[in-house]
Amino acid sequence: MRPREDLREQHRHVPPVAHARLRPRPRPRPWPQPPTPDPAPVPAATAAAAAAARPRWTRRQVLAGGGAALGLGLVGVLGWKGAWAEARLGEARAALGDLGLPLPGLHGPGAASASAGIADGAGGGGARTVRATLSAQPVTIDLGGPVVRTWAYGDALPGPLLRGRVGDTLEVAVRNHLPQATTVHWHGMAIPNPMDGVPNLTQQPIAPGAAMTYRFVLPHPGTYWYHPHVGVQLDRGLYGPLIVDDPADPGRYDAEFTVVLDDWLDGTGRTPDQVLQQLAGGMEMDMSGMSMGEAAGMASMRSAALGGDAGDVDYPHYLVNGRVPSAPVTLRARPGQRVRIRLLNAGADTAFRVALGGHRLTVTHSDGYPVRPVTVDSLLIAMGERYDLEVILGDGAFPLVAEAEGKGARGLAVVRTAGGAIPGAAAKPAELRGRLLRLSDLDAAPEAALPRQRLDRVHDMVLQGDMAGYRWTINGRGYDHLRPSDAPALPLSDGERLRLRFVNLSPMFHPMHVHGHTFQVRTAGSASGAGPRKDTVLVRPLETVVCDLAADNPGTWMAHCHNLYHAESGMMALLAYQN
Ligand SMILES: [Cu+2]
Question: In 3D, which of 293, 294, 291, 311 has the Cα closest to residue 302?
Fold first, then answer.
């Protein structure tokens, strides 16, 4: 890799870590009784039979189809649970109440009947149990030309869409057919800590051949996703979308596209584990595994919009919904229709610059939560982030381009409302160079703003890297996956309001993600200072991003960089509090 003496230089300037209220606190411990995976091995034949029994949906139906089909696609709605369901919904309401978010049965003239609907199972806003199975398995996948051997959930990319309504219970049986232990993390979901999927911290990892059922109430509407939290498994094909609908707010759109972006190298001569090894070798790494072109490409991985360094890994492919740009997916609608695009970046080391040829994009949600709508030409989406966009479609075929920012390559999908030539892989919509969404453009919609509360604490998370050993740290310390309770932990108490300041002293951007919570960014330069609700925020080199968080979900939670290679190399910390 490139020499990075500048990083080592940065390392010498560690500012004092500020704590507004610094009190001695007990060391955070792993959750007292972490759930353990089911001990019984899963016979492959049984899993295959279960998979075969599942309804089959085409990629277009699952990822580009109408909302109604999506809702029941890969999830079974297995009955109503009367009073029990009412109680679960009550929990969801209690958790949501202080956010002021609309909830089924709580708002509007239909409140009484919706509530009754839960009890008798006849309403549209009641709680159900939504069941699904995820089989993590080795598989051969055609990316639209390149055929790769990889690991995925099922036999396609992305993994199956999981979808339910606010207040529903999601019950997912995860069967591990991988040669490694695994877990599933439900990114962005404020769910109980034992369901969070962090190995050796919130659960024992699911051993090869074992299974585990995750079960939790869907707490907030929005666009989320799921992926493993073990090693660099996420940089294989192990990821999928998770959408939570709000029956009280079905949205004003005619069609919906779920668009999943990814950077891809698994099965092309390198595995993510080998890449991590190479990176860990730092400046002395053996370059023999890489072509001259790749080496040259790395030198040019720069982006002004990302503040400099655009990434550590040069990928051979960039995928949109599992396809390379020479064989793109087609997203179909009719001219004049209002389309909701649910955009998610499942990449490990790549921020994408997204634009739709011939259209501007109205941003309506960030990381699942509504914002005051803002219309731009293009946006940057970092790893782990989601944006929901609205577009009124023109007549024709349009390139939906996801440029791998600073990496000189791109992913592509085709949005089609009529016949005509499909734009080629080289299509370059002018919108890519138009008005780019800035963080300061975004403010939470009033119903998504954190309620006013005085600050109880301020914690800094100082982000640094030491390239000699490819060691990434938070407040000068790295995370040991085998001894998570030794990790740098930021004390907190239930019910407090925490201000988190992500202080980036490294020359590289970090998408910082907090588990189990959604913070509100206090954006410098924003007119109102309100900022968007998010769970993952891009922090550029030498930038500080300030976020406020309501400590309303006790547990031991990760706060980490969503660059998978940074996270795996130590850039993880803990927020811990009990009730
Ligand atoms: Cu990072």
Answer: 311
Q: In what order do the strands lie in the sheet with 409-416?
A: 330-332, 409-416, 397-404, 352-356, 379-381
Token digits for 251? 């949205």
Q: Counting beta carbons within 10 angstroms of the beta carbon of residue 252, is it exposed (0 to 12), middle (13 to 18) or buried (19 or more)?
A: exposed
Q: How far is the CA of 376 from the centre of ligand 1 (A)?
A: 27
Q: How many angstroms separate the alpha carbon of residue 99 from the centre of ligand 1?
A: 29
Distances in Å between the Cα of 224 and the Cα atoms of 242, 286, 369, 380 are 5, 38, 10, 18
Taking the centre of ligand 1 as the mean of its atom positions, its distance from the CA of residue 431, in whole angstroms, is 28
Closest CA to 141 of 70, 59, 48: 59
Q: State the pTM of this model.
A: 0.79
509 Cα: distance to centroid of ligand 1 (angstroms): 6
Q: 65 C-alpha vs ligand 1 centroid, how far in Å?
A: 34
Q: Measured between alpha carbons, how far is 309 from 556 in angstroms, rounded to an integer?
A: 32
Mean model confidence pLDDT for the chain: 79
Whole-number Cα distances in Å, 525 to 511, 531, 535, 545, 548 = 20, 10, 20, 12, 16
Q: What is the pLDDT of residues 15-56, one digit of tens each?
A: 333 332 222 333 333 333 445 555 444 333 333 333 333 333
Ligand 1 centre to CA of 472 (Å) is 7
- pLDDT, residue 486, reads 77
The rounded Å distance from CA 477 to ligand 1 centre is: 14
Kindly report, residue by residue over 206-216, the tens digit of the pLDDT.
999 999 999 99
Q: What secondary structure does DSSP assign to 377-435, as a single string?
A: SBEEE-TT-EEEEEEE--SSEEEEEEEETTTTEEEEEEEESS-SPPPPTT---GGGGSP
Q: Are strands 162-165 and 185-187 parallel, antiparallel or unpaired?
A: unpaired
| Distant-in-sequence, close-in-space partners of 478: CB < 8 Å, separation ≥ 6 | 471, 472, 569, 570, 571, 572
Q: What is the distance in A from the centroid of ligand 1 to the CA of 283?
A: 18
Contact assessment for residue 374 and residue 437, using Cβ atoms and an 8 Å cutoff: yes
pLDDT tens track for 60-83: 222 333 332 233 223 322 222 222
CA distance 390 to 342: 9
Question: What is the total residue count of the chain?
Answer: 579
Whether 460 contacts 17, CB under 8 Å: yes
- For residue 573, report the distance from its CA to the centre of ligand 1, in Å: 12
For ligand 1, the distance from its centroid to the CA atom of residue 566, given in whole angstroms, is 5
Ligand 1: centre distance to CA 541 (Å) = 10
- Angle formed at CA 197 by CA 76 and CA 194, multiple of 5 degrees: 90
